[in-house]
Amino acid sequence: MSMASEQPVDPTDGRLLLNAACLQANGKAGAPAIAEPPQWTWGVVQEGLESFSKTSGKSVEKILLAVSKQAAKERPEAEEALDQGVGQLERTLVHDGTTLNHEYHSKVLGRLTKLLKLYGQAQGSRLGVNIVQSLNSHENGESV
Questions:
Q1: Cβ-count burial of 19 within 10 angstroms (0-12 exposed, 13-18 middle, 19+ buried)?
Q2: 14-36 pLDDT, tens per residue?
Q3: Hey, how many other C-beta atoms are within 10 angstroms of the C-beta on 110?
Q4: Residue 56 near residue 63, CB atoms below 8 Å
Q5: Can you state the angle between helices 11-26 and 42-56, rounded to 10 degrees?
Q6: How far, in Å, CA of 87 to CA of 53, rounded?
Q7: Which residues 6+ apart lie within 8 Å of 3 measured at CB?
Q8: Phi–psi pair at 15, nearest 5 degrees
Q9: Which end of the chain is more exposed for a tag (fewer CB within 10 A), N or C?
Q10: Between residues 53 and 86, which one has the greater pLDDT?
Q11: What letter would DSSP give residue 97?
């Protein structure tokens, strides 16, 4: 089935396909070698695939076949995760502790610390008490 090059594509789908194609074409993960287009269309995706084809020396068909095989290989694991439900997925993500999770949690903790300090200052000023902050109050780039 051939897609019209003007047909719009969801940006997430376009990025996913090009990232997977980049991995299969180059043998390593990396950002696609194309700039973020103003509008994602099948033509943009096709241009990206052709670019990967030229730089890797593999045909577009071979790249897409490799992407398809990789997706088929990972499908059972994804289906099992979906069958286990959201709770199990959350436990797995938290247990694996990806860098993104750590970054998110450190930002949340930093913001909570900041809010608690502000709350303490407000309560202190309401009671007429001066609160002295420690020297390390500006950790994690947070300012009070």
A1: middle
A2: 888 888 888 888 776 555 556 78
A3: 14
A4: yes
A5: 10
A6: 40
A7: 42, 46
A8: -65, -45
A9: N
A10: 53
A11: T
| pTM for the structure as a whole | 0.51
CB 49 within 8 A of CB 63: yes
Centroid of chain to Cα 41: 21
Q: How far does Cα 110 stand from its chain's mean position?
A: 21
Cross-strand pairs, 68 = none
The amino acid that residue 133 corresponds to is Q
Question: What is 16-81 written as a DSSP string?
Answer: HHHHHHHHHHHSS----SSPPPSS-BHHHHHHHHHHHHHHHS--HHHHHHHHHHHHHHHHHHHHHH
3-class secondary structure, 8: strand
